[in-house]
Amino acid sequence: MNNVQGLLTASVISIQNSCFTYPACQNCFSRLILDSRRFNCLKCGCTGEAKDASYRYRLSLKIADTNDLFDITVFGSCLDPYFGVTAENLQRYIQDFNQLSGETNTESSTRALVQAVETCFIGKRFIFGV
Fold first, then answer.
1. Which of 11, 17, 32, 107 has the fewest CB atoms in 10 Å of its CB?
2. Domains: count for the chain
3. Model's pTM, two decimal places?
């Protein structure tokens, strides 16, 4: 949805989720259903091999302007500059890190990423297209 109807200058109060990427359909950007070998889009019916699934950013935030609190979600490549890589590459780095470190519990890498995102966003002011 690229139809910006207004701009809102607000500060980020908190991060609402700890999973910043999701497997996304290339046709409609909906979340894909992944199993060990295949992916399926419930919205448009697109299918393929799980290893070929693309990833996209999804960052849910609680923000505040001078008068109100808002819950917003920022999607897509506009987050690439903040993360320094595409969602696809970030997902790959996380998977590689967990595999190389022998982590079966991904909680420590998730916690480190959440802390980094909180440091980058919380307390900072941004202009949001709404």
1. 107
2. 1
3. 0.84
